[in-house]
Amino acid sequence: MVTRRVFFKSGATAMLSLGFAPSFLGRAAAAVAARRKLVIAIFQRGAADGLNMVVPYGESEYYRLRPTIAIPRPGGNRGESVIDLDGFFGLHPAMASLTPLWSNGSLAVVHACGSPDSTRSHFDAQDYMESATPGVKSTGDGWLNRCLQVSSAERDPLRGVALARTMPRSLQGVAPALAFGSLDEFDVRGPAGTKFEAEYAHSSDLMLGTAASDAFAAMRTLRQVAGTPYRPAQGVTYPPTPFGRSLQEIARLAKADVGLEVAFTELGNWDHHVNEGAAKGQIATRLSEFSNGLAALASDLGDRLADTLIVTMSEFGRAVAENGNGGTDHGHGNAMMIIGGGVRGGVHGTWPGLAPEHRFEGRDLAVTTDFRDVFGEIVVGHLGAPRASLAKIFPGHVVKSTPGALRA
Amino acid sequence: MAALTALPTASIHGAAPVQDDPATVAHVLNRLTFGPRAGDVDRAREMGLQAWVDRQLHPEKIDDGAVDARLLPLASAPDSAEPKELRRFARRQVVTLGANKIVREVYSERQLQEVLVDFWFNHFNVYAGKGRTAQFLPEYESDVIRPHVLGRFRDLLEATAKSPAMLMYLDNWRSTAPDAIRGARLGLRAQNAKRPRGLNENYGRELLELHTLGVNGGYTQQDVVEVARAFTGWTIDRAGQFRFVRAVHDRGDVVVLGHRIAAGGIEQGERVLDILASHPSTAHHIAFALAQQLVSDDPSPALVDRAAARFTATNGDLREVVRTIVTAPEFLAPATRGAKFKTPLEFVVSALRATGADVHDGRPFVQALQELGEPPFMCQPPTGYRNTAETWVSAGGLVNRMNLATRLTSGAMRVVTLPDGAGDPEALALRLGSPEFQRR
């Protein structure tokens, strides 16, 4: 366990991979119809239990502190025990649909990852993660919006799309972006359409005028996409849930080459204070929808997965010990997953151990990787942003080393 | 009318003499009601704006019998604790209650009360999708929230703390002392019942962070644990009522924000509520939240400080805090007009009021709110729905509002009859979908 404390799966040299990616400058010029690098951010709202998602089954403390909700070590019945990843960590059995991605090296996990801020407030922690400025509430925009601001000055709202009924904090900001529930409902029907457009165009209300102008511009492009019913790739079935449908819409947009650079969607209901369950139960149901969705998205994207990174996040983790109700209370460190073509498969980061003296405030998984270092690696290594832009995207933070979850 | 003379004008520090010009009256109606109906501005001017405001501050004096006749009857809860059946019941219940909420907001004469019911419901949010919360919702709205929105904060706080809806939603009903007697039973049968045997921090944390002090209100993780211990044994009995079960209550002293509260029974939690309700951080947090609802997304610190001072001086009399805010120069300033972007609920209800629509069935508007991102009673996080522009302004949201404006006015919705003389449908749609109508 002590050796595990200094266990670096990928080596600290990963930090050297930060640098100019030549593709970045070229891409701004070829804005039209070209395949772009795409980041799909998925937020697990409510603080998912990372310790039951990517299980440190090599830790005896994990089993000692979770007598009723621990996932049994690998080797038990299929579907009832951990799916081994590397001899120490393993996936929750409900996440079996991700094993092909693990086997072909397209799935990376950064464990013991999170925020330097100690808040256990859902709202604050989500805000800090989406603004990527932990502890600072005055930040006006989200990190994904700042990615768009840095990558190009082009005013095209289809560069950033959230499949969500409200604009998530991550995408709020001066760069145009869209939020809608589905492609098909994003259209103004009836003869009033052009009149509404004129009404907003002539309005002195800058905030609403701008939002409407982005909406009408995007609508013209999307009518061509929405005109034909979408069929996922052969054999791909998304979960029949709002989350599944959102992922399918993202794939649809990605394949339509409308210029998508960042996409966002979310899955809630992870706040399992009561009856969390172990291999079966509430968290298993949630993880199954989550993983089946991710697996379907990855297959549906097909060869486009090479240009895509899917990154998952949750505001904080949950306490190491289960509580009095077979659930877990708010904790600290968590696990992020990255799926895509440029990924270096494996479990990354420094594992702090679960022994009392290694826990955060004596109770939670400690954070050894700042989530902004994971974001930073994605921004530079995948989106190809210049290293100098990191100071703008992550104000107040120096992205000093990265977990090495991407191939150099 | 005694109430008229009792209305503070120059008597309260910072209060401006209230003008009765149409623009001011329209502004006040936009904030203290779910939007003016045709003729409302003239009627309020006839009454005198101050008298109108005072009348709204005393809803008990306003006859509101007519609205009850428009409400749908509620189904009774299933006996079974079978999760599938509970979910089915919850879905039906939530649509019926949502429709009743919308209809009440459209037709109630006690408009300020209903604006505040929505505000305080979100402040003390519960989510209908969790466990049996849906079955406790009707009384949560009618007995816990509504009677207290212009009363004392301490009463409202205790009513929520002892409400089955909150006890269920934030898990306190099954939080017990860590060493509670193994055999001790809580009243309500748990789904997949495992006997509870320990502390659950969920309510304790949200009580401090959201309900009272605010996230920067000066509490620690240890305070969360101590508060949670004080509320052990606050649970729900088999009849679905609040009950204190001493057998599972923590038997130690607790120390909350530096106050030692000796071991005991239910009074330990009640003492915590006293401490929290009278704390300066709570005064500030509540004053800020009300000013943000009534004035602007970013209310002036001076106004918030005055409202907080009023909160403290009156022992948390919410009527007086609201009165301080709505008679403040910051509230009446021309720059404040139209400064708030309507939430989806405010948009839908104000559109129905503006058109003078006769709504035979509110349920399709529950669906509309689902599409707009604000389905009633279905906000999962304990923060409740927010009322700021950054939350609700989006391209998709505007498109949905334009489409709803068109649908509502075109005669396509059979649940709605527009009055004769409502005017050209397209012109009406363009008005309801306009940038100006999205603001209040």
Order of helices and strands of chain B: HHHHHHHHHHHHEEEEHHHHHHEHHHEH
Average pLDDT metric of chain B: 91
Low-confidence stretches of chain B: 1-14, 190-194
Report on the biggest sheet of chain A.
9 strands, mixed
- What is the CA-atom radius of gyration of chain B, in angstroms? 23 Å
Helical percentage of chain B: 40-55%
Q: How does the overall form of chain B come out from the CA principal axes? A: globular
| Helix and strand composition category of chain A | alpha/beta
Counting DSSP E segments of at least 2 residues, the number of strands of chain B comes to 6
What does the largest sheet of chain B look like? 2 strands, antiparallel
- Classify the beta-strand content of chain B into a percent band: under 5%
What would the average pLDDT of chain A be, to the nearest integer? 90
Structure description:
The complex is a heterodimer of chains A (408) and B (440). Residues 1-34 of chain A have low confidence and may be disordered. Chain A has 13 helices and 12 strands. Chain A is 31% helix and 13% strand. In chain A, the strands form 2 sheets. In chain A, strands 1, 5, 6, 7, 8, 9, 10, 11 and 12 form a 9-stranded mixed beta sheet that branches. In chain A, strands 2-4-3 form a 3-stranded antiparallel beta sheet. The longest helix of chain A is centred in the middle third of the chain and has 21 residues, at 206-226. Chain A has 408 residues and is an alpha/beta fold. Chain A is globular and about 65 Å long. Chain B has helices spanning 2-6, 22-32, 40-47, 49-57, 65-68, 83-107, 111-123, 133-145, 153-161, 164-169, 202-211, 221-230, 266-277, 280-294, 301-313, 318-326, 329-332, 344-355, 363-372, 389-392, 395-409, 425-432; strands at 234-236, 242-244, 254-256, 259-261, 358-359, 416-417. In chain B, strand 3 and strand 4 form a beta hairpin. The longest helix of chain B has 25 residues, at 83-107. The model of chain B is unreliable at 1-14 and 190-194 (pLDDT under 50). Chains A and B meet through helix 6, strand 7, helix 8 and helix 9 of A and helix 11, helix 20, helix 21 and helix 22 of B.
